[in-house]
């Protein structure tokens, strides 16, 4: 859903599997993302992920038909059931990256790294 130009910049909401991505291309050429979605683990546990990211305007010249040039840093947070084996995710700090997948329009690769 494209909201067009707003006071903040160009705003879009992109549906993703299990949630939505609120995307903003800022007036300074940078961009930010705020995604909220749910993951289901192999053993059936549902975990909420809220992922915020930003990239500077140095990437503004990336060609839209070259998704592999899209890259940003993210700060994911997880909400796992306290009674599950994933409860440790509720108390950990993560950073991540988000980038386009080469040869796959509309697909991204998300990497998450635990800091603490």
Descriptive tags:
116 residues; mainly beta; elongated
The total beta strand count reads: 8
Proportion in helices: under 10%
Rg, Cα atoms, Å: 15 Å
**How are helices and strands ordered from N to C?**
EEEEEEEE
Mean pLDDT: 87
Written overview of the protein:
This protein is mainly beta and 116 residues long. The chain has no helices and eight strands. The protein has strands spanning 2-5, 9-16, 19-26, 31-40, 46-55, 71-79, 94-101, 104-114. It has an eight-stranded antiparallel beta sheet, with no helix packed on it. Strand 7 (94-101) and strand 8 form a beta hairpin. The relative contact order is 0.15.
Task: Put the structure in a nutshell.
The protein is mainly beta.
Give the secondary structure arrangement, pairings included:
Blueprint: E1 2-5, E2 9-16, E3 19-26, E4 31-40, E5 46-55, E6 71-79, E7 94-101, E8 104-114
Antiparallel strand pairs: 1-2, 2-3, 3-4, 4-5, 5-6, 6-7, 7-8
């Amino acid at each position: 859903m494209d909201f067009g130009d707003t006071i903040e910049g160009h705003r879009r909401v992109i549906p993703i599997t299990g949630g939505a991505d609120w995307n903003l291309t800022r007036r300074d050429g940078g961009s930010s993302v705020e995604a909220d979605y749910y993951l289901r683990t192999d053993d059936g546990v549902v975990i909420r992920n809220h992922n915020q990211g930003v990239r500077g305007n140095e990437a503004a010249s990336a060609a839209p038909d070259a998704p592999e040039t899209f890259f940003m840093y993210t700060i994911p947070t997880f909400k796992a059931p306290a009674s599950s084996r994933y409860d440790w995710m509720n108390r950990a700090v993560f950073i991540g990256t988000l980038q386009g997948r080469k040869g796959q329009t509309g697909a991204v690769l998300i990497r998450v790294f635990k800091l603490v």
